[in-house]
């Protein structure tokens, strides 16, 4: 997994997120022959649609596992098992364990794995600088957010779920917007609404993302795209910077069941070293996430996700209709899923950032993520800091959607997405994309002016998005 932010020039590694959940009943007795090779590890298991919780529990027990929880709406289970053969018993096309995969990779590499990060020290809200940093917010001016705020700053009836590493609820720029009742921790794949489960512990990433969505418009610090809306912390990134597929499902399902109209996912699920790795296990991850996203969309949630910082072409390969076909195809999850709004990043020059992945038919819109010495300033525990990445581009889009939902509370998920894309500013493919000046193109942009692999439908436009026909407000001339 990987967090999709870069502090100035450096890439910050991390990542990934679950509700509508049934706590599992007593597990069946272990069948004869179950083995144990240490502590129980978690797995996500996809069952046939319509499978009941008792039937799922019986199948899991037969394969030497214990059902920890079940999402009957999408027939996905969270399972623990100490038996190293559990996934094989269950079927590699049905079960996947990120913990087991990482352990095997660490053993093969001869390493001890990624060390735990230094824990964050709780910030003193009274010590947060109060200087007005709006002059540094080139990103907000790029998407015309200040002009949008003269129309609306958003409604408190709109809650954006920040699926990330946790959000600081006490930061002065976020405290008024924070929604504890809709917050939860999803690190185990099972939603936990206790504050200890959703607060940040080792990473400022989620707090930075949250500020770009909804930091207060109070003349202090920064102002978010939609300063009048609320935010919920849905923690999906653990203390080592990892998040697993079951955590991603948990976060998406929690948002759907809480009827959050928008979620922000500035991460990608990837238990492997590269997002281009193929295999049956990747098919399981694709399937469970696709089910969760489809369910959330039906419930009215628009899921927005970063295209990743891997600078790879995500365009589907010919004949790659299934998640395990088409060798060489890279798939970013959840950004690559059909019902997700995938976001690429541009720098201050409105050109695709070198780190940003891209792909015709995958990228839907673009937004400012920063590049080199022009990163995006936002909130962090104890203050403010600049970060670059598709992680930063994505909450600009979530914020514009929050403004849209505020202006049009009756809009469905499909209508919100259509309005977002319709009012984006098209950016044509660049004639020359040689960022290093060595005479070689660093990436190739396919498509046409109004829709292409670098920018999708274009740069999101906050003002035009809220000044829609029928509101009595002027729209920008194109």
In short:
InterPro entries: Peptidase_S8/S53_dom (IPR000209), Peptidase_S8/S53_dom_sf (IPR036852), Peptidase_S8_Asp-AS (IPR023827), Peptidase_S8_His-AS (IPR022398), Peptidase_S8_Ser-AS (IPR023828), Peptidase_S8_subtilisin-like (IPR050131), Peptidase_S8_subtilisin-rel (IPR015500). With 478 residues, this protein is an alpha/beta fold.
SS-based structural class? alpha/beta
Query: What is the count of DSSP helices, taking H or I runs of 4+ residues?
Result: 12
Strand order of the largest sheet: 8-9-7-10-12-13-14
Low-confidence stretches: 8-20, 25-32, 320-328, 471-478
Q: How many strands, what sense, and barrel or not for the largest sheet?
A: 7 strands, parallel
Q: Report the CATH C-level class of the largest domain.
A: Alpha Beta
Q: What is the helix content?
A: 10-25%
Shape: globular
Average per-residue pLDDT, rounded, comes to: 87
- Percent of sequence in beta strands: 15-25%
CATH fold-level assignment of the largest domain: Rossmann fold
Distance between the termini: 39 Å
Keywords: Hydrolase, Protease, Serine protease, Signal
Pfam family, one: Peptidase_S8
Protein name: S8 family serine peptidase
Organism: Amycolatopsis ultiminotia
Task: Indicate the topology.
Blueprint: E1 2-3, E2 22-23, E3 41-46, H1 53-62, E4 66-71, E5 76-81, H2 86-90, E6 95-96, H3 98-109, H4 138-142, H5 145-149, E7 159-164, E8 184-185, H6 195-198, H7 205-214, E9 230-235, H8 245-257, E10 262-265, E11 267-268, H9 280-298, E12 302-306, E13 340-346, E14 365-368, E15 376-380, E16 383-387, H10 390-407, H11 413-422, E17 447-448, E18 451-452, H12 462-466
Parallel strand pairs: 7-9, 7-10, 8-9, 10-12, 12-13, 13-14
Antiparallel strand pairs: 1-11, 2-4, 3-5, 3-6, 4-5, 15-16, 17-18
